[in-house]
Design a protein that fits this description.
Largest sheet: 5 strands, parallel
Mean pLDDT: 89
Bound molecules: cobalamin
CATH topology of the largest domain: Rossmann fold
Shape: globular
Structural class: alpha/beta
Number of helices: 8
Strand content: 5-15%
Helix content: 40-55%
Number of strands: 7
Order of helices and strands: EEHHHHEHEHEHEEH
CATH superfamily of the largest domain: Cobalamin-binding domain
């Protein structure tokens, strides 16, 4: 349990902020949103870090980081959060996810290895980073390449590093970023042995008939978990 006193903002206000093993994911989400609402950056950072320390990666991603990012993003779209507030959260979450990724990767063998990225024009990066953390937590080394990557660059990377699969996160409407064309070019740029995994909230809208032969659309995290677990058992 961690517990500390925050200096009161007004003479009458004394706030005890508690975070215990019993704090539910929904309470964590509400506390983080409240901290951002009031521009309490240090509290936001601390609450996000405590969520990572107190929860396993699946619950963390599905029940805290996913919902809190969506809530903050929706408020930003509605004009209720400023860009700076949205960035406060994204930065805090990104830092903690990167920390987790390093920790899990240190424990995972060098091979097999899966790379994670998004196509050119796709700036939504958090789903990809979260998936990399989940993959590494299942014991399969994760190379997070960052978002908005031209397929030529992805191909160049995979021709230097033995990557068994490249996981692509599709969030923006696939028509807008010509996802099918990019995926065909990606297939050409990759070694034949590298599989293409597709997922994310707009992956279901991909024109399946126009995709390269070996693209697999992974519809949920349970399916992803099965695939990375199979890779781990298979070994290098
Ligand atoms: C934050 C946000 C942004 C931020 C992104 C910041 C960042 N650094 O990532 C910014 C401000 C940049 C942004 C910009 C835009 N955004 Co935006 N954004 C969001 C928001 C609010 C949250 C997205 C997020 O981080 N989700 C959290 C993650 C964890 O969830 P996730 O991506 O679904 O990932 C999970 C799963 O899907 C899965 N997964 C993800 N990838 C993969 C891959 C594989 C292989 C597998 C198996 C699973 C998997 O695992 C993850 C963990 O569970 C959503 C709203 C929403 N309801 O989602 C809109 C949303 C995604 N954005 C939207 C839009 C339209 C835009 C803009 C076009 C807006 C504009 N007019 O400029 C631009 C486009 C930018 C671009 N070119 O990419 C739309 C997309 C609609 C569509 N499908 O076309 C949404 C849905 C908002 C809406 N209600 O309309 N956005």
């Amino acid at each position: 349990m961690s517990c500390y006193w925050r200096a009161p903002r007004e003479k009458t206000e004394v706030m005890l902020i508690l975070s215990t093993a019993e704090t539910t994911p929904a309470q964590r989400v509400a506390a983080i949103i409240e901290a951002i609402e009031q521009y309490r950056i240090a509290d936001c950072d601390r609450l996000v870090a405590e969520a990572r320390e107190g929860l396993g990666p699946c619950v963390l991603v599905r029940e805290v980081f996913g919902p809190v990012l969506r809530e903050a993003g929706d408020r930003w779209e509605q004009g209720r959060f400023s860009v700076a507030q949205e960035h406060m959260l994204s930065n805090a979450v990104r830092r903690q996810l990167t920390y987790s990724l390093d920790e899990f990767n240190r424990l995972a063998p060098a091979e097999p290895c899966v790379a994670y990225t998004t196509l050119s024009g796709e700036r939504h990066e958090m789903g990809s980073l979260m998936l990399a953390v989940l993959g590494a937590s299942f014991g399969v080394r994760a190379m997070y390449l960052g978002p908005d990557l031209p397929v030529v660059e992805v191909g160049r990377f995979c021709n230097h590093v033995p990557v068994v699969a490249i996981a692509i996160s599709i969030v923006t409407n696939p028509d807008v970023i010509d996802a099918a064309d990019q995926l065909c070019a990606l297939r050409e740029a990759l070694p034949v042995t590298t599989r293409i995994w597709l997922g994310g909230q707009a992956a279901g809208r991909l024109p399946t008939g126009q995709l390269p032969w070996d693209c697999t659309v992974i519809t949920d995290i349970a399916d992803f978990e099965l695939r990375v677990t199979a890779l781990r058992k298979q070994g290098p």
